[in-house]
TrEMBL record:
This is Major facilitator transporter. Keywords: Membrane, Transmembrane, Transmembrane helix. InterPro entries: MFS_trans_sf (IPR036259). It comes from the Bacteria. The chain crosses the membrane at residues 15-37, 43-64, 85-105, 111-130, 142-165, 171-195, 236-258, 270-295, 325-347, 359-379, 385-407. The lineage of its organism: Bacteria, Bacillati, Cyanobacteriota, Cyanophyceae, Gloeobacterales. It comes from Gloeobacter kilaueensis (strain ATCC BAA-2537 / CCAP 1431/1 / ULC 316 / JS1).
């Protein structure tokens, strides 16, 4: 923790609250994906309905995440708060998550059974409503120079929550859908309430990224002046496109990796759960060292390095023939992924003016949604395409993301700079 104290422009209590919310989001999606085939199957939908539904939800996410991020930016400028969207989306998601298993228990027949897919899509929409506005709050809690270190806390929480998938699967299935969905909803709602409570004490002495907090308090000229540091509207549009493509590439690569790696392990008679759990726990364990490295040498450089490493390491998946090599590869993939996931917040938030932070993070997640849709299509054709083709697409996705990071100019920025302004100009809010 002493290393973290060297980076004072961070509101640590708020960051831990945001990490709790990030973990709750990951846990909710884990529960959803785990029970989705069972819920649809109990109402008589064929197995192909699962990938079709995930493709629809991915396309929906690609549109909704940037929209909600931009809408939260507007609310932040006008009313100095993103919380109306965050609270509305969270409450809707929690209510729908509790209702979903009850619909299955009611077992409607005929046309009424189509209520379930509509509710499932509605739940994914509600989750997309608040994720980008919530995670854009990181720009309020950390100065640009310290954001990779602050993001490390979110990476740890997300990695631990994600590890429940492979390592805690029997326990999660033993709970049953009603209990698990209620648990996930309760954790999600609690996380938002805790974060909101912590955020009430934030005053106007906020980190650098939030000086635009309200147009009622800050002259409009300031926003225009900040935008100029990013090269004008044309350069901004280019950066927004690159953020979207980076999110799509990185998410496509990781989704195909997590789909194909367990299949290769199972074919080699290696139990997939411990290996995949090792991957998730490794990137969680290395999050803080990765954040400190990003602060030292530059976030863009570390993120691009991690993406290139992932593109090379994923090509080694087919040669996993024994447990020792599988665990070693999982450790290497986890280490490389820690550089990527740790840097995504600083990349998305640092590539746009602070008044567009919600849009920036929304575009990254929107690109991820498009990648999820594409990966869903690939998954249905994987037997015909072959594992090698799937891994090649994953490797290409990582390389595309690395190229986008390079083209934004992130790797040439000084380690202490973001949005064109030295981190020395950052203003840290006191812990209250």
């Amino acid at each position: 923790m002493n290393s973290l104290k060297k980076h004072p422009p961070v509101l640590w209590r708020r960051v831990f609250g945001l990490a709790m919310l990030s973990a709750a989001i990951a846990f909710a999606w884990l529960a959803y994906i785990l029970y989705l085939p069972k819920l649809l199957g109990q109402l008589g939908f064929p197995p192909v309905a699962v990938p079709v539904l995930l493709v629809i939800e991915g396309l929906l996410t690609a549109a909704v995440e940037p929209w909600m991020g931009s809408l939260s930016d507007e609310r932040q400028r006008r009313f100095a708060s993103r919380y109306p969207l965050i609270v509305a989306g969270t409450v809707a998601a929690c209510v729908l998550f509790v209702v979903l298993p009850l619909v299955v228990v009611a077992h409607p027949g005929g046309l009424l059974r189509w209520i379930l897919p509509l509710l499932l899509i509605g739940w994914s929409f509600a989750m997309a409503v608040f994720r980008s506005p919530a995670l854009a709050l990181l720009s309020r809690y950390a100065a640009p120079s310290s954001m990779p270190v602050a993001a490390a806390v979110l990476s740890i929480a997300t990695g631990i929550a994600s590890a429940f998938g492979p390592l805690g699967r029997p326990w999660l299935l033993g709970l049953g859908a009603p209990a698990l969905f209620c648990l996930a909803s309760g954790v999600l709602l609690l996380a938002v309430l805790v974060l909101r409570r912590l955020d009430r004490t934030v005053d106007l002495s906020l980190p650098y990224g939030s000086i635009y907090i309200s147009t009622r308090l800050v002259p409009p000229a300031l926003g225009r002046e900040r935008s100029k540091t990013n090269g004008g509207s044309g350069a901004l549009l280019t950066r927004l496109g690159l953020i979207f493509c980076a999110g799509a590439g990185a998410s496509l690569g990781f989704r195909l990796l997590t789909d194909i790696f367990p299949k290769v392990l199972a074919a080699a008679k290696i139990v997939p759960a411990p290996v995949m759990g090792t991957l998730f726990l490794t990137f969680a364990a290395l999050a803080i060292p990765a954040g400190l490295l990003a602060v030292r040498v530059g976030n863009g450089r570390t993120m691009a390095t991690g993406l290139v490493a992932m593109s090379l390491l994923i090509c080694l998946v087919p040669v996993c023939k024994n447990a020792g090599f599988a665990f070693a590869l999982a450790l290497a993939l986890g280490a490389a992924h820690s550089l990527v996931i740790n840097g995504l917040y600083a990349f998305a938030l640092g590539s746009v003016p602070p008044e567009h932070s919600g849009l920036g993070i929304g575009l990254y997640f929107g690109g991820g949604g498009l990648a999820m849709a594409a990966a869903g299509v690939v998954a249905t054709q994987l037997q015909a395409l072959g594992i090698g083709t799937g891994l090649a697409l994953g490797s290409a996705g990582f390389l595309l993301a690395a190229l986008c990071v390079v083209l934004t100019g992130s790797i040439t920025a000084a380690p202490t700079e973001a949005n064109g302004t030295p981190a020395a100009d950052s203003i840290a809010a006191p812990e209250t």
